[in-house]
Design brief:
The complex is a heterodimer of chains A (207) and B (768). Chain A has 207 residues and is mainly α. Chain A has twelve helices and no strands. By secondary structure, chain B is of the alpha/beta class. Helix content of chain B is 30%, strand content 20%. Classes of the chains: A mainly alpha (207), B alpha/beta (768).
């Protein structure tokens, strides 16, 4: 359990909803859910979630902190926005799901080997290097995340797709060496760093 | 008599009638068969010239009885409005030309139909007289309001504003009823239009209780007299001439006359102590009514729990306590506003005990009716009131104050919730008097064959229960002391179609005695009832009927020498209008009568009649239908159709191009309850091959405009099979159907079905 997590448990003891309101992006909307279940019914991946959105909102109100934050559910969101479009109360459900996932990550509560979480980290690291996503490297790091042997297997399985992308000029082998990026990479990194500092300070203040 | 009657017929050839039918032939039928002394044909009778033609005949030629053969009697009502003569209408448009296909091979039967309808109308009008009001009562601009709560006070203020005097009779020592005791009110105005759906939108919260202002207005109003600590100990008379004894606690009685009465006797709380699972014995488990007192006591400060005076930091609202369940001892219905009350009370805690006071509303189905309902719910959510869908099993003592054991319906798990205070949402029970029809209603729920055996036991039970129910109105009517109940003890009135209207004409129920409601709904209700009461006082003074035959001036009378004092009319009148006089003859009380004719249908010796509706007006129509002999193979089907639903359904069927059997002859009746068995036997004897009676839905979800008319008819027609077998006829020749106004495809099909029955069993042997 991270220090931040311990601190948050201490502070909000019995009121997880208040913790979500203060720390989760768009978390102030959770109280407005009226439990109609349209979001759960609309989610294309709903059947695969341990707790669909409606249930997550109810769990937050019922103070089920550990269960929610260490849940795999919000990582399952594919951002299709069906729920947002259909929510009669106009809750930004997709954003809340991402907000919860981010918060869980900050507290170190992400379930081990959660593939979406792993992918997100790889994507972020990849993008931060040059300010643009390097498709080739992103693909490779994803293939080889579970070891060399598995990586070769993955690469061979997707060989055809890769070739087609090359043909269509969606991916270039030359990207392997450096690759494209934004004009001022250092500036971007500085900017993101500052943003991270502000966020961290906010969280710290809420401790 | 014959000298001063003059019969005039008018035939319209507009709307295609003249193209489809032989107008000369119709005119001949009216004068030769129908014996009209004059008969005019006009190409558009409802036009200015057409109306002038009729008017001239009445004013200058002395016509006293007119027969108009044109469109349905439901069309052009304003144009053909001649109240100074007896009038009938033959339905040639919807009834004939629109109901039949325009082809050569159908020409003959279509013309026959039209000729028959003219014969029938001419025969009918001969037995009608112009209805004239009895003058039994004058205009009495005084209204009795029973109950001094929000409903009663609002009704009195509204009636007073319309220039009527009012007497409020209140059993307690002060005005205001329950509502005066509330800490705050549920809001009734939605957020302004255009308010966003956002979580920060400004939404309505609880509002100040303004009942004190209402009391002040009543007390300051010169037209309103208030009788506190008083009850109505006797009510007699009829609309326009009610007489009520108002007796105070000390026993002094004043008698006042009234034009109409509003019963706003309100509600009482369901006794939650009878259900031990809610743990009301624990001082920290209170009802929502008790919480209002706690909140008031606290003023603007924090609400303290009763057991030890500790400031409440957590509270659970148990919704639907003892309500909406078929379990023994529970209220079978939901009081509707309990969830609004819970939200309002949860606000008390958020506002007075602070935002960190945990408030959980354990609901089953969250219902927030009213204009502000949904916004109020959202306001509660904004304020962090927790709404949990939970099924409460038990409330026990323990933990901090009380523990609510419930099953969370969303998370599907059993939860024990410890809180400082539990608030129970208890139901509203109507303050109705004893139901005059309790025995009848209980018996009708049983199968026919069990009723006789069960009667004594049910009568005993009802009598035992009645002891504990206090009468509100103490009517001296033949049929019981109070307004009949509709369901679950709520005082009768049709929820949707005719609110306020009860089965006792001129007495209107309003407020929670009619159905559970909040202050705003009760005020709207009171206004409606006040308008109804004023309307009835005026109607009664002019001898006009109340809904649904609004404005009808005819009323029943009976031939005294023929009456056998069998009492059937006094018992079967759905409105309890008929009393018995000193000599035990029926006394009709015109102003209480709704003109349905159920008494007429009930009378075994056929002595009851209206000026314009009687055994003869229909009987003569039946006799004057031309019955072709059996070799012509043209059957005749008599359709007795309720004028409220079935008859318009047939009209609409014709309008929408449905065919109606050419053998059918449709006679509108005021209600199936008015159908006399003699019409059935007469038509059979005359050679009709089949009879269809079309009435409204009966039973618990009745649609009958006269409530019990179609039930009475069904009851009577059960015996019709015997009559048919004595005539050696097949029982399937007579059938009773429930037809709704929307049955525009079904109604013509039912006639078609009868055609098939006749084909199967053969034509009637009674054709001469």
């Amino acid at each position: 359990m991270s220090d931040m997590n311990t601190a948050m448990v201490e502070k909000y003891r019995s009121n997880f909803l208040k913790e979500v309101e203060a720390n989760v992006e768009e978390g102030q909307w959770v109280k407005m859910c009226m439990q109609c279940g349209v979001c759960s019914g609309s989610c294309p991946l709903g059947p695969y979630w341990a707790h669909p959105p409606q249930e997550i909102f109810m769990m937050i109100r019922a103070g089920k902190r550990e269960e929610v934050l260490s849940s795999d559910s919000m990582w399952m969101c594919t951002s299709c926005y069906n729920c947002i479009v259909r929510c009669p109360r106009e809750l930004p459900i997709t954003h809340i799901m991402h907000g919860l996932a981010t918060y869980a990550k900050k507290l170190g509560l992400v379930p081990k080997n959660q593939p979406t979480a792993q992918f997100s980290q790889i994507f972020w690291d990849n993008m931060m290097k040059k300010g643009r996503v390097n498709e080739l490297k992103l693909g490779l790091s994803l293939y080889f995340k579970d070891g060399f042997g598995q990586g070769i297997k993955n690469a061979l399985a997707n060989q055809k797709l890769g070739m087609n992308m090359m043909k269509a000029k969606r991916m270039s082998a030359a990207e392997f060496f450096g690759g494209h990026g934004v004009k001022d990479v250092a500036g971007l990194q500085k900017m993101i760093k500052k943003a991270e500092e502000i966020e961290a300070a906010k969280l710290e203040a809420n401790k | 008599m014959a000298d001063d009657k003059k019969f005039a017929g008018f035939i319209c050839t507009g709307c295609g009638i003249g193209d489809r039918l032989d107008a000369k032939q119709l005119e001949m039928t009216a004068t030769r068969d129908g014996k009209m002394q004059t008969c005019h044909t006009h190409e558009m009778l409802c036009s200015k010239e057409g109306i002038e033609l009729i008017r001239n005949e009445i004013d200058n030629e002395g016509a006293t009885h007119i027969m108009i053969a044109a469109c349905s009697r439901r069309a052009k009502v304003e144009a053909f409005n001649f109240t100074d003569v007896a009038m009938t209408r033959a339905n040639l448009r919807e009834g004939v030309i629109w109901a039949r296909p325009d082809t050569d091979e159908n020409q003959e039967t279509t013309q026959e139909m039209a000729d028959d309808y003219i014969r029938m109308a001419c025969a009918e009008v001969k037995f009608m007289t112009k209805p004239t009001p009895s003058g039994e009562q004058g205009l009495n601009k005084n209204i009795l309001v029973v109950g001094g709560g929000v409903t009663g006070m609002t009704a009195a203020l509204e009636a007073a504003a319309a220039g009527f005097d009012c007497h409020i009779v209140e059993k307690e020592g002060e005005l205001g009823g329950w509502a005066a005791k509330w800490h705050k009110r549920i809001p009734y105005r939605a957020a302004p239009e255009g308010t966003s759906n956002s979580r920060t939108a400004h939404l309505p919260g609880p509002i100040d209780n303004d009942v004190a202002d209402l009391i002040a207005q009543v007390e300051a109003n010169d037209r309103i007299t208030v009788h506190l600590n008083s009850k109505v100990t006797k009510t007699s008379g009829a609309p326009g001439r009610f007489s009520a004894d108002i007796t105070t606690e000390s026993g002094s009685t004043t008698t006042e006359n009234f034009g109409a009465i509003i019963q706003a006797s309100g509600w009482k709380a369901f006794d939650i102590d009878s259900l031990p699972e809610y743990g009301h014995g624990n001082p920290d488990v209170v009802t929502n009514i008790e919480l209002e007192a706690l909140a008031r006591e606290a003023g603007d400060g924090p609400i303290k729990r009763p057991s030890d005076g500790k400031e409440v930091k957590s509270v659970a609202f148990v919704q639907n306590a003892g309500q909406a369940s078929e379990k023994e001892g529970y209220l079978p219905y939901h009081s509707g506003i309990g969830d609004l009350v819970a939200i309002k009370q949860a606000f008390y805690f958020k506002e007075q005990n602070g935002d960190d006071c945990d408030t959980v509303i354990l609901f089953d189905n969250l219902r927030t009716p009213g204009a502000a309902g949904e916004d109020f719910y959202r306001a509660g959510q904004q304020r962090m009131i927790t709404f949990t869908k939970g099924e409460v099993k038990e409330v026990t003592s323990g933990g901090n104050g009380a523990t609510v054991k419930f099953k969370d319906r969303i998370l599907d798990e059993d939860v024990d919730l410890d809180v400082d205070l539990v608030v129970l949402d208890t139901g509203m029970v109507p303050n109705s008097g004893p139901d005059p029809y309790a025995v009848t209603v209980a018996l009708e729920k049983l199968p026919l064959e069990e009723r006789d055996a069960a009667k004594e036991e049910i009568e005993k039970q009802v009598a035992e229960q009645a002891v504990s129910i206090e009468s509100i109105l103490n009517l001296d009517y033949r049929q019981g002391t109070d307004l009949p109940h509709l369901v679950n003890g709520f005082t009768d009135s049709h929820f949707i179609c005719f609110p306020y209207e009860t089965r006792r004409t001129g007495i209107y129920a309003a407020g929670p005695v009619r159905r559970p409601m909040d202050i705003k709904q009760a005020q709207d209700d009171a206004t409606g009832a006040a308008m109804k009461a004023i309307q009835e006082a005026i109607n009664a003074s002019q001898g006009r009927a109340a809904h649904p035959r609004s404005g009808d001036l005819s009323y029943p009378s009976f031939r005294r020498e023929g009456c056998t004092q069998c009492k059937r009319c006094t018992v079967e009148c759905p409105f309890g209008a008929i009393d018995e006089d000193e000599e035990r003859y029926p006394k009709y009380n015109e102003a209480r009568c709704r003109r349905c004719g159920t008494c007429m249908g009930a009378c075994p010796v056929r002595v009851i009649s209206f000026e314009n509706y009687s055994i003869d007006t229909v009987g003569q129509q039946i006799k004057n239908v031309d019955i072709p002999d059996e070799f012509e193979e043209k059957p005749r089907i008599l359709v007795l159709a309720c004028e409220n639903d079935a008859y318009p359904a047939l009209d609409q069927a014709a309008m929408s191009g449905q065919e109606i059997s050419p053998w059918a002859r449709v006679i509108p009746v005021r209600c199936l309850g008015s159908v006399s068995l003699s019409w059935i036997t007469d038509s059979m004897n005359n050679g009709f091959d089949g009879i269809i009676m079309m009435g409204c839905q009966r039973g618990e979800d009745y649609q009958c405009h006269f409530v019990r008319g179609s039930t009475m008819a069904a009851e009577r027609m059960r015996k019709v099979g015997d009559t048919l077998s004595t005539l050696n006829l097949e029982p399937e020749r007579v059938i009773v159907h429930e037809v709704a106004i929307t049955d525009i495809e079904r109604a013509p099909r039912l006639i078609k079905d009868m055609e098939e029955v006749i084909e199967r069993v053969g034509l009637s042997p009674f054709k001469f």
